[in-house]
Structure to design on (275 residues):
């Protein structure tokens, strides 16, 4: 299969993951996959380890999921790394998460460049410590010329806050006289979200077995297919991503209508990374 050239070596033939890969229809990949990464704390507790060990182990899952998404040829991957509600956690845990994020951004730049990935932070980035903001801007700028996967990392992110921010920006435009309020429609609201210009998620994955949305991409997931796995985030690996996509490809998407919609066609093979 020509489509799997970027995955050779990454997913060796003869492995169970390769079987999942063979089952995929590359003409019907989701364009945008969004993931609620959950279960780091439980993973650590099961092993008698501090919560930070779960977050640290979760970074390996982030790395593998990002690379696998890029090699598959997905257009957008959005990971929920730190919610607005997460500010309620103990200060020490927040500090540790921010330290891990800085470390990840610092170490991962080479791999993001090699895999032609564009990193974008979405959320109230201004709430983050200036040192984290600097690291984010550095990686965003360095990867802005890439042409492959867009990796949205959601930080200090809340779906309701995002809609509030979009409303504020629309009202400001109307006040300045550059927008007639009657022009506001769904397309215009979408253009004022953090994900402006991006297709909405086709597939939303949540780990650790909870059936909750947790204030994630509330506007954008109106018609997303949802896939929940019992697996805790630090145990989430490429095989599980492939299984979720295979399951997505079996679903019939009707968007409230009666006709069966074809799943959107993904990016062209040229956009994929060569190994
Ligand atoms: C949920 O587990 C996970 C988080 C709140 C943070 C996710 C962060 C990472 C994986 C590391 C940093 C991210 C990047 C992008 C480098 P939980 O703590 O809520 O787990 P629990 O529900 O089992 O307690």
């Amino acid at each position: 299969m020509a489509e799997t050239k970027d995955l050779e070596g990454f997913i060796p033939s003869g492995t169970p993951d390769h079987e999942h890969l063979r089952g995929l229809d590359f003409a019907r990949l989701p364009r945008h996959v969004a993931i609620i990464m959950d279960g780091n704390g439980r993973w650590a507790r099961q092993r008698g380890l501090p919560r930070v060990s779960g977050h640290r182990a979760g970074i390996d899952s982030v790395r593998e999921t990002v690379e696998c998404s890029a090699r598959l040829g997905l257009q957008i991957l959005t990971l929920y790394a730190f919610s607005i509600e997460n500010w309620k956690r103990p200060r020490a845990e927040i500090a540790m998460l921010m330290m891990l994020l800085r470390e990840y951004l610092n170490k991962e730049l080479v791999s993001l460049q090699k895999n032609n990935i564009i990193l974008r932070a979405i959320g109230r980035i201004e709430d983050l410590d200036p040192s984290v903001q600097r690291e984010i801007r550095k990686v965003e700028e360095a990867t802005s010329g890439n042409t492959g996967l867009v990796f949205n990392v959601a930080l200090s992110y809340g779906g309701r806050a995002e809609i509030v921010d979009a409303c504020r920006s629309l009202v400001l435009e109307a006040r300045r006289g550059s927008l007639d309020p009657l022009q506001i429609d769904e397309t215009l609201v979408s253009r004022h979200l953090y994900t402006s210009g991006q297709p909405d998620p086709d597939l939303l994955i949540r780990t650790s077995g909870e059936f909750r949305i947790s204030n994630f991409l509330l506007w954008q997931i109106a018609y997303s297919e949802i896939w929940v796995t019992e697996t805790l985030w630090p145990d989430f690996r490429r095989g599980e991503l492939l299984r979720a996509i295979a399951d997505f490809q079996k679903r019939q998407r009707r968007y409230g209508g009666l006709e069966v919609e074809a799943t959107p066609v993904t990016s062209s093979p040229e956009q994929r990374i060569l190994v």
The longest helix spans residues 91-114. The longest strand covers residues 76-83. Residues 37-42, 55, 58-59, 62, 79, 81, 86, 100-101, 104, 153 surround farnesyl diphosphate (CB under 6 Å). The chain is about 40% helix and 10% strand.
